Amino acid sequence: MNTYIDVVVRTIVAFIALYVAARVLGKHTVSRMTIFDFIAVVTLGSVTANLSFALEIKARYIFFSLFIFVVLIYLSAFLSLKSKRARKFVAGDPTVVIENGKILEHNMKKMRYTLDYLNQQLRQKDIFSVDEVDYALVENNGLLSVKKKEQHLNVTRKDLNMYKPEVKLPIELIMDGEILLNNLKENNISKGWLHTELTKRSLSTQNVVYALLTSNDKLYIDTHNDQLKSPLDVE
After folding, report:
1. CA gap 120, 11 in Å, rounded
2. Which of 85, 112, 152, 157 is found 20 to 30 A from 21 (Cα to Cα)?
């Protein structure tokens, strides 16, 4: 068999094997990654390792195998964008593990997802009792999405009619003694206003490490001389 055809066949078989392995091992194995992220990471590691010490394999074959892997992953992503059915096959569906406050042991068993791991992921969301959960599902990347019961939901500013309809982002004005002219221009802040504010504080731009216009329109300024009697960062 032609060497390049042999590499193509072996690469496709390896790709399928990684996909099946990721499915069998369960979503928690590829936590924070999709299955194809997992395949890409494993592939890059394997290719790098083989390129480093598998001297009996010619480098061009290794790079050719990597190219086939990249094409397969790209085609999978492309099909997922074009077809809902392909997307479901490639990425799978989220798995419900808690419904109406009840743990679905059968779904967890199919994923090899333990109660210890469920409790760990709940704690990472500041939930220390499963009794607080109304609905939870494991996403395709292995992370847990949770809907709390109504009585355990946090009170929001909207609930208290304290929310602001528009929230401004802080604007950086000076960094390391240099005025950020683009930021001034984009936010209609005049250079003269900034100099006036510095003059009020007996400062020049060279004295300023960092200046920021906060979201509530207050000017925060940090200078080179912090006037601390015993600064902790001085050796």
Report:
1. 37
2. 85
Measured CA to CA, the distance from residue 210 to residue 223 in angstroms comes to: 7
Segment (H or E) for 79: helix 59-82
d(CA 71, CA 39): 13
**Helix 59-82 crosses helix 3-25 at what angle (to 10 degrees)?**
50
Q: Counting every residue, how long is the chain?
A: 235
User: Residue 89 and residue 20: Cα distance in Å, rounded?
Assistant: 12
Q: Tens of pLDDT along 69-95?
A: 778 777 877 887 788 777 777 667 789
Question: In this structure, what DSSP letter does residue 154 have?
Answer: P
Question: What is the pLDDT, as a whole number, of residue 235?
Answer: 45
pTM value surpassing 0.85: no
Confidence of residue 118 (pLDDT cuts 50, 70, 90): very high
Specify the pairing of strand 208-213 against strand 219-223. antiparallel
**For residues 35 and 29, what is the distance between their CA atoms, to the nearest angstrom?**
10
